[in-house]
């Protein structure tokens, strides 16, 4: 304030600074704070390219081509009567997530090519935003993260929209504590209208991809322990998501197509059954798109990859036309079947890949040490099927029964031997087994008795000696606490 001043006096002790801060004062723009606030409320794990999704399923090249082309034609169509919402539906294992993942990557990569030759204000990519619901974590199964995550991506991918979204957050910093409809209005619809009014909105076609809607549920509901109240709460969450998304798709300021992938669960079927056909269309993953031809191509390509990767002799003896025909027939249009079979063959351990293929075909020899192989569910659909009395019918298995059975099997993996080396081998195998959620389960009398006979000291000595990641979060300590807490509750 007194730069270069000389020969003057200051009377009194009050100095008022009326100077306006300049950029040199390093004051952070308010829009930067708004962007940080937005970023703090998204689910990065739900993005199509999130590292946390860990190699998500994709369509094998040259498979599902007809479906992909139909979807892409709809996304890029400039027809005024094009329906704004597409529902891709099918039961577990039909490849919904693989198709939507492939479409998201395809739309995003096309955008990157265009962005290399155009300014960001005229970004031409067809991916507006994506959200892949998953039961695995609160931030990927809760609807509270959906709108902020979509808004964050739209700010990045739609030219001219970012300033309006950030300005909306500055005007209403508490928007993230409001309901989903309010968030849609403030974070997406109003900014779209504002950007369009000022002629700043990129007019190129965009799609918003939402996968796994059937896995959307309240944050406090997880695992396979499901009561009638839990199922109603899940259905309410899914219905609210659809109400907000479809209402947005009808809004005159909303220029995007919305692609939704889901199993045909009751609440979702009912919602779309009551929706005017002018608002949506659907693709059912059934025989219409001839899945057997794609499944055959997938089997041929993946078995060829296994043959090359592991140096298996290509004499035609282990992969014959009859083998391929049987695998395609057994799949019955379910991509998850062949994906599971191929992964099982590829991860052969203690036997050859040919042995594993033969065991799938029914001609494999029985192994006495079969219990030393790790138990593993290759896909969520099996435990979900067994746990749903409506779907499984006579195959239904109650949580109390199958979880206690698994734990008994878990405990039998470690049987104290006279040889220290034998103990070590069993402990390592035991540590690698994943056990289901116990929050709704009570230990059976057999499990409690087995725990009392278990060599707990040996287990914990092993854990201390092998702090190498082999022992998963589900270990004997968790089981011991579970049984101990149950006994305390029983005694009160």
Helix and strand sequence: HHEHEHHHHEHEHEHHHHHHHHHHH
Spatial strand sequence of the major β-sheet: 2-3-4-1-5
The overall pLDDT, averaged over residues, is 79
Number of strands: 5
Low-pLDDT runs of 5+ residues are 13-27, 112-123, 364-375, 415-434, 467-474
Helix-strand category: mainly alpha
Q: Beta-sheet strand percentage?
A: 5-15%
- Helical residue percent? 40-55%
Helical run tally: 20
Which oligomeric state applies? single chain
3D shape: globular
Largest sheet: 5 strands, parallel
Measured on Cα atoms, how large is the radius of gyration?
A: 28 Å
Describe the protein in words.
By secondary structure, the chain is mainly alpha-helical. It is 48% helix and 5% strand. The chain has helices spanning 30-39, 65-76, 96-115, 138-141, 146-157, 162-171, 180-197, 228-250, 266-273, 291-309, 321-331, 335-346, 353-361, 381-386, 389-392, 399-412, 420-431, 445-452, 456-465, 476-491; strands spanning 85-89, 127-132, 207-211, 257-262, 280-284. A five-stranded parallel beta sheet has the order 2-3-4-1-5, with helices on both faces. β3, α8 and β4 form a beta-alpha-beta unit.
């Amino acid at each position: 304030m007194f730069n270069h001043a000389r020969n003057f006096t200051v009377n009194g002790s009050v100095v008022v600074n009326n100077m306006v801060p300049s950029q040199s004062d390093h004051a952070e723009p308010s829009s930067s704070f708004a962007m940080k606030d937005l970023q703090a409320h998204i689910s990065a794990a739900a993005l199509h390219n999130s590292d946390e999704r860990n190699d998500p399923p994709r369509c094998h090249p040259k498979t599902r081509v007809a479906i992909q082309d139909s979807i892409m034609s709809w996304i890029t169509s400039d027809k005024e009567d094009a329906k704004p919402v597409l529902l891709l539906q099918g039961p577990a294992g039909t490849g919904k997530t693989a198709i939507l993942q492939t479409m998201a990557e395809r739309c995003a990569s096309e955008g990157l090519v265009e962005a290399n030759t155009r300014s960001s204000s005229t970004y031409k990519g067809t991916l507006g935003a994506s959200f892949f619901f998953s039961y695995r974590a609160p931030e990927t199964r809760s609807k509270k993260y959906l709108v902020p995550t979509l808004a964050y991506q739209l700010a990045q991918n739609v030219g001219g929209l970012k300033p309006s979204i950030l300005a909306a957050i500055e005007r209403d910093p508490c928007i993230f504590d409001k309901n989903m409809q309010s968030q849609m209005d403030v974070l997406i619809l109003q900014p779209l209208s504002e950007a369009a009014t000022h002629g700043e909105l990129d007019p190129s076609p965009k799609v918003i991809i939402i996968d796994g809607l059937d896995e959307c549920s309240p944050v406090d509901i997880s695992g396979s322990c499901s009561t009638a109240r839990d199922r109603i709460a899940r259905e309410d969450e899914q219905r609210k998501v659809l109400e907000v998304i479809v209402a947005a798709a009808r809004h005159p300021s909303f220029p995007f197509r919305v692609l939704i992938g889901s199993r045909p669960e009751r609440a979702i079927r009912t919602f779309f059954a009551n929706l005017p056909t002018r608002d949506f269309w659907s693709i059912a993953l059934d025989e219409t798109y001839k899945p057997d031809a794609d499944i055959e191509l997938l089997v041929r390509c993946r078995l060829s990859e296994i043959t090359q990767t592991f140096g298996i002799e290509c004499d035609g003896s282990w992969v014959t036309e009859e083998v391929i025909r049987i695998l395609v027939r057994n799949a019955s249009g379910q991509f998850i079947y062949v994906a599971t079979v191929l992964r099982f063959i590829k991860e052969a351990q203690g036997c050859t890949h040919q042995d594993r293929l033969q065991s799938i075909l029914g001609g494999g020899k029985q192994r006495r040490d079969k219990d030393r192989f790790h138990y593993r569910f290759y896909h969520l659909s099996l435990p979900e099927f067994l746990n749903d009395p409506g779907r499984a019918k006579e195959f239904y298995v109650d949580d109390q029964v199958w979880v206690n059975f698994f734990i008994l099997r878990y405990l039998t993996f470690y049987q104290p031997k006279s040889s220290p080396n034998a103990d070590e081998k069993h402990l390592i195998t035991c540590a690698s087994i994943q056990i289901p959620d116990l929050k709704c389960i009570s230990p059976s009398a057999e499990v409690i008795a087995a725990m009392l006979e278990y060599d707990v000291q040996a287990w914990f000595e092993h854990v201390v000696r092998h702090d190498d990641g082999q022992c998963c979060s589900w270990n004997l300590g968790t089981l011991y606490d579970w049984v101990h807490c149950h006994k305390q509750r029983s005694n009160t």
